[in-house]
Design goal:
With 547 residues, this protein is mainly alpha-helical. The protein has 27 helices and six strands.
Length: 547
């Protein structure tokens, strides 16, 4: 177990164990266009009748899925929709390019119609996640998706309810709503599991919180007096009046009153900085560090529009705050609330001992949450705690551990994933295949041998996993990897070579692309020979690669 209060290791540039491709303008546009193609083909499949046309559309969707997966495999996607145009990695896409490209133009219209403000896709996102994203963008706005007018809210919970923070969320994909002056939003956005996204849960009323309007009005003058304090004497007087209110709120369990006091004190601390009244404010901050107060404040997090001030206060409590938030996460019955607590723990960026203890919990969902948090926070020392989970009987825990280990990218994490290439779960095998292709840094790790990966590919039955294996063989680039890719890409040489007879075009094309990545121009003479291949799809791919 790492020392108490451990934070992730900050690594200097060039020393990261896993190196990812940086953003590239043309690559980002290509990825966006491949997503647009998948969305278009999904829309066509949804509108086509059963029969031959439906079967043809399904094949076209599968081809588009391979394209977008291959694109995302190489680089992440950061896309915003601002002023009715795409902005990729901070650079606006030329309006003329979008207008002249029917796929991009249609995708932009769909995003605007659905109220999408941003799309973020991590590098190496799973095909299932990309399909969920494309399905969201391909759907038609239903009658019950009419935008909701944001009337003047009567409570803070109303504000939170009318401003969803996510339209779609999974491990590697995040879709956020557009910021609209009128507060228009999608009525029931879905998360990756098909549940309501953050901001769409029902929020408690003032009656549910037990807060009286009189108590809130009574706190008003005191908070105003605190905000007006410009010297230590005035600040002390304001705090003297404020501390009893905190005591009363804590005793009654008035979480909302305590929240208003805490936010006002935190904001005032920013205003005075190191000037007059700061010492008095510290007394309030210390009073709010009582565990009972922190628990009440943590309970308000899902219902607060701006959580920054509360998180600043919770951060001062260190591991105590993490313990409280983790318990809230495990007890929350609402998916939106669970997302808030998960993100809050990640923002605090403090890996307390409780998270390491939960990795050994008997409940699968508790282990999954703990592993996901440690991976998201980049706690590199957690690799030793996660590696045994790759042998767990529950595939949900193995998948969560594999995802977090590949995020950590330490030498031990990647080596453990290499050994999981024969796992019973297709998703674990896919992540293990990805780990073979990750570039090691300067920590002493050598490239893994391609033999085991090539042997696993021989018996792989899942198409998505096979594609990841082929791509990683190309990234390894050794003699064994190139030899195996060459056998896959080239046409069958003899009638006795029955092991290669069932190869499909998609596998040959993937092997050909991996060869080009591994050997570059040195492989072009062989690519040239395939421009006249008997399979028209392979021939077309060879022509494209030659160009």
């Amino acid at each position: 177990m790492p020392p108490l209060g451990y934070r992730r290791t900050v690594v200097a540039a060039g020393e990261s164990v896993v190196q990812h491709a940086g953003p590239d303008g043309r690559a980002a546009r290509g990825t966006l266009r491949s997503l647009a193609l998948l969305v278009d083909r999904l829309a066509t499949l949804g509108s086509s009748p059963d029969g031959a046309q439906g079967g043809s559309a399904a094949t076209a969707v599968r081809d588009a899925m391979r394209q977008v997966t291959a694109r995302v495999r190489e680089a992440p996607v950061q896309c915003r929709i601002q002023e009715q145009q795409f902005v990729l990695d901070g650079e606006p896409v030329d309006r003329g390019l979008t207008r002249d490209d029917p796929l991009l133009s249609t995708l932009l219209v769909r995003c605007l119609s659905l109220g999408v403000g941003g799309i973020t896709v991590r590098q190496g996102a799973a095909p299932a996640e990309l399909l969920t994203l494309a399905t969201l963008l391909a759907r038609r706005r239903a009658a019950d998706d009419t935008p909701v007018t944001n009337d003047t809210p009567t409570s803070m919970s109303a504000v939170a309810e009318q401003q969803p923070r996510e339209l779609l969320r999974s491990w590697s994909v995040l879709v956020t709503p557009a910021d609209q002056p009128g507060g228009h939003r999608l009525a029931t956005p879905l998360d990756g599991a098909g549940g309501l996204a953050a901001g769409t849960s029902s929020m408690p009323s003032d009656a549910d919180t037990g807060i009286s309007a009189a108590a809130l009005r009574g706190a008003g003058p005191t908070l105003v007096r605190l905000a007006a304090a410009t010297d230590d004497t005035a600040g002390r007087r304001g705090v003297d009046a404020l501390v009893p209110l905190i005591d009363q709120a804590e005793f009654r369990g008035d979480a909302r009153l305590l929240e208003q006091v805490a936010v006002a004190a935190a904001r005032q601390a920013h205003v005075v900085a190191g000037g007059g009244g700061r010492l008095a404010l510290e007394r309030v901050m210390r009073r709010l560090q009582h565990r009972s107060s922190l628990e009440l404040l943590a309970g308000r997090l899902p219902y607060v529009e701006d959580r920054t001030m509360l998180l600043e206060l919770l951060a001062r409590a260190g591991e105590t705050a993490v313990d409280i938030l983790v318990k809230q996460l495990l007890q929350a019955e609402d998916g939106a609330a669970r997302r808030v607590y998960f993100d809050s723990i990640v923002q605090l960026d403090i890996a307390g001992p409780m998270l390491f203890d939960l990795v050994r919990d008997s409940r699968w969902f508790v282990v999954r949450n703990a592993v996901a948090l440690l991976g998201e926070m980049g706690v590199e020392q957690a690799d030793l705690a996660m590696l045994p989970l790759l042998q767990h009987a529950d595939d949900r825990i193995r998948v969560a551990a594999a995802r977090s280990l590949v995020r950590l990218g330490t030498v031990k994490a990647l080596q453990g994933l290499h050994a999981a290439i024969d796992d019973a779960s297709a998703e674990v095998r896919r992540i293990a295949a990805v780990s073979y292709g990750l570039t090691p840094g300067t920590s002493g790790m050598v490239r893994p041998p391609a033999v085991r990966l090539a042997m696993a590919l021989e018996k792989e039955t899942d198409e998505d996993v096979a594609l990841e294996m082929v791509a990683s063989l190309g990234k390894l680039g050794g003699a064994d990897a190139v030899q195996r890719l060459f056998r896959l890409a080239m046409p069958q040489q003899s009638a006795g070579d029955t092991g290669e007879a069932s190869r499909e075009a998609w596998l040959r094309i993937a092997a050909l692309e991996a060869l080009v990545k591994a050997r570059g121009s040195a492989i072009m003479p062989h690519v040239e020979t395939l421009t006249n291949d008997a399979d028209p799809e392979v021939a077309q791919a060879a022509l494209r690669l030659r160009g």
